[in-house]
Amino acid sequence: MKSLLTIATGIIMMVLVASQNPDIENNNADVSDIQFKSCSWNEVLVLAKKENKPIFLDISASWCGYCKRMKANVFTDTEVAKYYNSTFINASVDGEKGEGIELAKKYGVKGYPTFVFLNPDGSLAYQTSGYHNQENFIELGKNAINK
Fold first, then answer.
1. Which domain holds residue 126?
2. Total domains in the fold of the chain
3. What does DSSP assign to residue 11?
4. % of residues, the chain, pLDDT over 90
5. Is residue 120 part of a domain?
6. H or E element at residue 69
7. If DSSP codes are grouped into helix, strand and coil, which group holds residue 114?
8. Is position 23 within any domain?
9. Of the listed 34, 61, 64, 109, which one is catalytic?
10. Under a CB-based contact definition with an 8 Å cutoff, are residues 55 and 88 in contact?
11. Is the predicted pLDDT of residue 8 greater than 50, yes or no?
12. Model's pTM, two decimal places?
């Protein structure tokens, strides 16, 4: 009886340790938020052509309050993530740093956040700016690829 209790305690301890281990991947993590590509803009363009998928480009700034709200409340919404991850090649840049400066100039960014939707060939399909809630953001994506 004592050995059975020891074995049960050991199993419980292993389960608790494994559940708190940050190295164990959560296979559903990629569905919980929009997955933005971490590569150059040219690589995004090549990938869009290769996969024949439109591009969603988020142009934001580190100081922008609405950009922070979009990242915290909308880009992390499960339904938004499912739609954008399955429909677009997603990219995000800071319009005031690195490649983002040139992209902000190219697309005439006048305020943040700016959302640029491109066809798979890289041509402009639609562009808008400002905060959008979850429902509106899904509709925005649907309308952008149907224009």
1. 34-145
2. 1
3. H
4. 76
5. yes
6. helix 65-69
7. strand
8. no
9. 64
10. yes
11. no
12. 0.78
